[in-house]
Each structure stands twice: as structure tokens, then as C-alpha cells.
Design a protein that fits this description.
Blueprint: H1 2-20, E1 22-29, H2 48-52, H3 60-76, E2 80-85, H4 94-99, H5 102-111, E3 115-117, H6 126-136, E4 141-142, E5 146-147, E6 161-166, E7 169-177, H7 181-184, E8 192-193, H8 196-209, E9 214-220, H9 223-232, E10 238-240, E11 260-263, E12 269-273, E13 281-289, E14 295-300, E15 303-304, H10 313-331, E16 333-337, H11 345-348, H12 354-367, E17 374-378, E18 389-392, H13 393-399, E19 406-412, H14 413-424, E20 435-438, E21 440-444, E22 454-461, E23 464-467, E24 473-479, H15 480-483, H16 490-495, E25 497-500, H17 506-517, E26 529-531
Parallel strand pairs: 1-2, 2-3, 3-4, 7-9, 9-10, 10-12, 17-24, 21-26
Antiparallel strand pairs: 1-13, 5-8, 6-7, 11-12, 13-14, 13-15, 16-18, 17-20, 19-24, 19-25, 21-22, 22-23
Helix pairs in contact: 3-10, 5-6, 12-17, 13-17
């Protein structure tokens, strides 16, 4: 009898402990990059044929349907759910170049996000561009390591932290934005940046002091930096990140597990999760806390948003209506190619890639009659691949969405070597500054000391190659973003001679080049970049 009573009591205590657990489902996306319409396997806009074959992924209508279905499923079971965006909604298609953020505010509001981190590309059109989003949404948009108090259009509109009531519990959110954003976008002098780890530490401590025991870092700094945050910032229970377009999970090509567990400064494991990019996946992280607010479990997996998910019909209709004015531009056939042009992010930021060669060759061909012999294109400016067959202007804009123009200038061989060193300076992080080239060859050793990573630099002289002369002056073409110091290329801003930054749009240059190559064109790698 006593044994039965004891067993019953233990079961009751066990049941009570289980009920005290708090489970939070985190649905998250990052780096959407204006993929309003579904994408193909090359991360560019799907055409009618691929749509008819159910070979497309994502798009805002499918993403909306997936979020709604999962959120409804969780809440119907009495669960708790939060929907987060880790930044970079802006830039990547004709929708953004047409509507400049108004479409982002409309669709994000319709989906019902709970919070969003600012991404670097939200500053592509300056503080005014970000203000369009901030003024158009009711949910908090935050970044704790930027000071916007001197900005007339942003002051008072960006949160450092936010605390949300989810299922009767307070969930604190802290945030940080990549500190090199002044080099990769255009925040302007009125926006200042603080150290990200120091900022996150102070904000997490402030929330903890206020009694918030469950804290998520929603960041736009990249997977490698997110691992640092988890390891070094006290008080974090999870990190949801973006910026590096990292795929996590058990699928082919994943960089790590989803979530990636990191030992935090207090010895507890901290999960780090991110969900690739372009709306191809919806992240789903499940966090379990005990009644003291300590994280006891973290599980989950990214959800592939393929044709098995029916797009939300109302949002799909709105996409068609907004897309009507740009359909003629997008569908304009400009060329036909015999083989795909690979523009995979991991390739174009680490080695010679097909799209890097084609774009650099196109730049060089466009300016050859001006005596230009060298082209440099930042790998981060290449945003998609192009499949074989007919090529539309929409596909080209997906590859080159930034509306950059050709820039020509003259500079010394020594400056060019410094530029190539800059291109290699954040190699391990997969930074966009990696230099794709034409009319130039070089060898890169990522493990070599700073200043010695670049060697064997050669320039084309007719049909032959010759060593680059540091003292000689060369005529160069790049895009206006790089020429004016973007992606760390400050040497082009300070040392360029006879610079002209107002050439044709780079997307038009690529279109003209593909037309000129004819329908038999196929890209090739020719050894212009050697990585040791």
C-alpha cells in the first residue's frame, strides 16, 4: 500500500515537472533577397516550364502558406510559436528595384512576423531605404549594435531589444548587424556601429536584470560569427542568424547540423540555427525550457518549401498584380546559352567560378575599345546562376540585382596587388570581396600571412601572359560599388586615376555579352585563379 502511494506521488511529481516545461517553436527565415516569386534550382526566378513541372521552391506565397500551416498546427495543439526574420529582405529581383521595400512591408505584415533583424542590404538605398520598411510594419525591427540617433529618418524607429509575451512567458530578443556593413552597403555617416559582442552582452545582461530568463539572439552577421556569439555572450539561449546563406541540416551540402550546439560561457549548450536563403527553406527550431527558464533541449530541422506546399492564394494573387508592370521586362528574352552558368555563392566567394568569368569577361569586352585590359568583379555581387537555354532579363537581374554601373580607371600594379589581397582578406568567412577577374591571373594561399596571400600575378598581353609590374599603370574596369570603396576596396577610391563611375548598368552589359556570344555559348574555367 505504501509502495503504491509512493509510486502515485512520484508520478504526480513527474507529471507536474513535465507541465512546468515551456516549449517554444521558432519559425525563422533569413536572406530572402526579394525572391517574391518562386525560385528554381539555381536560386533565380522560376520560368513557366519549371512551374508547370513542379520544380520550383519558395516564393512569398508558398512561404506564407508554410508559416501559417505550421503556426496553426502548433497553436491548435496548445503550443507556443514565434516567427522571426534574420534580415536581408531587400535586393535581389525586379520586385525590389520596382517597389523599393514597400512590397516587403506589405508581405511581411500579411504573414505576421513577430520580429526582424536589420540586414546589411536593408541599407542598400541608405537610411531612407530602411525607413520605408520601418514605417510600413507594426512589428519590431531591431539591431542592438547600431546607433541611429543622429539619423533624421531612423531615430526612434530601430529597437535595441524587444520582449515579447508568448504563451504567458517573456521572450527577450537581442540583435546585432555585421560590423562591415559600411563597406557592404550604404548606411551613411549618421549610422554608427558598435562592437557586436560587447553590444549583445550588454543587451542580454539588461534583459536578464529585468527578469527575462529566455533570450534569443536574432542576428545578421554570418554563421561563423554566430558561433562566436553563442560561445562568448552570457545569457543567450539560442542564436537565429543570417547573412552567410548557410545551409544546416542532414542534407547534402549542409555546412553543419541543425541546430549547431555550442558550449556557452556558462557551460550550457547554446543552439545556433540559420536557414539558407531565398525562401527555399523555413527554419523550425524547438526550444524546451524548465520552470527556471533554463534551456533543456533544442531540436529541429529546416523545412524544404517545395511544390508539396500550396502557395497562399490571396498572396499569390497579390504577387501577380504587383508583378504585372514588370512582367514585360522580366520575360524579355535576351539570349540563348548551351550550358548553365554556375554562380553558386560558395564557389564565387572562394575560387574561380563560371559566373565570375562570364561577368568579368563581359565587363572587359564592353570596355576593350577604351584600352581597358583588366576587369575585377566582387564575388558577392553575383547572386544567382543561369540555367541552359533561353535567358530572360529577369534571370540576368537575379544575377546582378544591385543596379551597379561600370567604372573605369587607371591604377598601378601595386594597387592591384593590394586589391587582390583585400579580396582574400576574409576568405575563411566567404566574404563577398573575393575577386573574380579577367585579363588577369593570380594565385591565392589563404593560409599565408597577411600581405603574402597573393602571388604569381600575371596580366594578359595579346595572346601571352606576363608578370604584373607593380610600378606600371594599368587600365581597369570594375563596378561603381567596388571602385568607390565597397567590400573593402578603399585603395580604388583613393588611388584611382581618371575614374569614371557612370557607365552602363552591369546587367545590361551581361545581356549584351551573352547576345554577342550566340546560342552555342558555354562557360568555362580556364585557370585564371589558383587556390592553394
Amino acid at each position: 500500500m505504501h509502495r503504491l502511494l509512493l509510486t502515485t506521488a512520484l508520478l504526480a511529481l513527474s507529471s507536474g515537472a513535465a507541465r512546468a516545461d515551456y516549449v517554444l517553436h521558432v519559425l525563422h527565415i533569413n536572406d530572402f533577397h526579394s525572391r517574391i516569386e518562386p525560385i528554381n534550382g539555381y536560386d533565380s526566378t522560376c520560368d513557366a516550364e519549371a512551374l508547370a513541372k513542379d520544380e520550383c521552391f519558395g516564393g512569398v506565397a508558398r512561404m506564407a502558406a508554410a508559416i501559417k500551416a505550421k503556426r496553426d498546427e502548433i497553436t491548435a495543439a496548445g503550443g507556443n510559436v514565434i516567427v522571426l526574420d534574420a534580415g536581408d529582405q531587400y535586393q535581389g529581383s525586379l520586385f525590389y528595384t520596382t517597389y523599393k521595400g514597400r512590397e516587403v512591408a506589405e508581405f511581411m505584415s500579411a504573414i505576421g512576423f513577430d520580429a526582424m533583424a536589420i540586414g546589411n542590404h536593408e541599407f542598400d538605398d541608405g537610411p531612407e531605404g530602411l525607413a520605408t520598411l520601418l514605417d510600413g510594419v507594426a512589428f519590431p525591427v531591431l539591431s542592438g549594435n547600431i546607433d541611429v540617433s543622429r539619423s533624421k529618418v531612423l531615430n526612434g524607429k530601430v529597437d535595441d531589444t524587444v520582449t515579447l509575451d508568448i504563451g504567458g512567458e517573456r521572450i527577450g530578443i537581442v540583435s546585432a548587424l555585421a560590423m562591415d556593413t559600411p563597406e557592404t552597403a550604404s548606411p551613411g555617416p549618421s549610422v554608427t556601429f558598435q562592437d557586436d559582442i560587447a553590444s549583445l552582452t550588454a543587451d542580454a545582461r539588461a534583459l536578464t536584470d529585468a527578469g527575462v530568463t529566455r533570450i534569443i539572439a536574432l542576428t545578421h552577421s554570418g554563421y561563423r560569427r554566430d558561433l562566436d556569439f553563442a560561445a562568448q555572450v552570457p545569457g543567450l539561449d539560442a542564436v537565429i542568424g543570417g547573412h552567410s546563406h548557410t545551409l544546416l541540416g542532414d542534407m547534402k551540402g549542409a555546412e553543419g547540423p541543425y541546430p549547431t550546439m555550442v558550449k556557452g560561457p556558462d557551460g550550457a549548450d547554446v543552439p545556433v540555427a540559420t536557414a539558407y536563403a531565398y525562401s527555399k527553406y523555413l527554419g523550425h527550431l524547438t526550444l524546451t525550457f524548465d520552470d527556471a527558464g533554463r534551456l533543456t533541449a533544442a531540436t529541429g530541422a529546416p523545412i524544404l518549401l517545395d511544390a508539396s506546399i500550396t502557395p497562399d492564394p490571396a498572396i499569390e494573387a497579390r504577387v501577380r498584380a504587383m508583378g504585372a508592370p514588370i512582367e514585360a521586362i522580366k520575360q524579355k528574352l535576351v539570349a540563348d546559352i548551351a550550358a548553365p552558368i554556375g554562380g553558386d555563392r560558395a564557389d564565387c566567394r572562394a575560387r574561380e567560378c563560371e559566373m565570375g568569368n562570364v561577368v568579368a569577361d563581359a565587363m572587359l569586352a564592353r570596355t576593350a575599345d577604351q584600352g581597358v585590359t583588366i576587369a575585377i568583379q566582387n564575388g558577392g555581387g553575383l547572386r544567382a546562376s543561369i540555367d541552359a537555354g533561353p535567358v530572360t532579363m529577369g534571370e540576368i537581374v537575379s544575377v546582378l540585382p544591385f543596379q551597379n554601373t561600370l567604372s573605369t580607371f587607371r591604377t598601378t600594379g601595386a594597387t592591384l596587388i593590394a586589391a587582390l589581397e583585400n579580396g582574400a582578406s576574409q576568405y575563411q568567412d566567404g566574404a563577398g570581396r573575393f575577386a573574380q577577374v579577367a585579363g588577369l591571373k593570380y594565385t591565392l594561399d589563404p593560409a599565408a600571412p597577411v600581405g603574402r596571400r597573393i602571388s604569381a600575378v600575371q596580366v594578359r598581353q595579346g595572346e601571352a601572359w606576363a608578370p604584373l609590374d607593380p610600378a606600371a599603370t594599368y587600365s581597369v574596369v570594375t563596378n561603381n560599388y567596388v571602385r568607390t570603396g565597397g567590400d573593402g576596396y578603399a585603395m580604388f577610391r583613393t588611388d584611382a586615376q581618371d575614374a569614371y563611375d557612370f557607365g552602363p548598368d552591369l546587367a545590361d552589359v551581361l545581356a549584351e555579352y551573352l547576345i554577342a556570344q550566340g546560342p552555342g555559348f558555354a562557360p568555362r574555367l580556364d585557370g585564371r585563379i589558383t587556390v592553394r
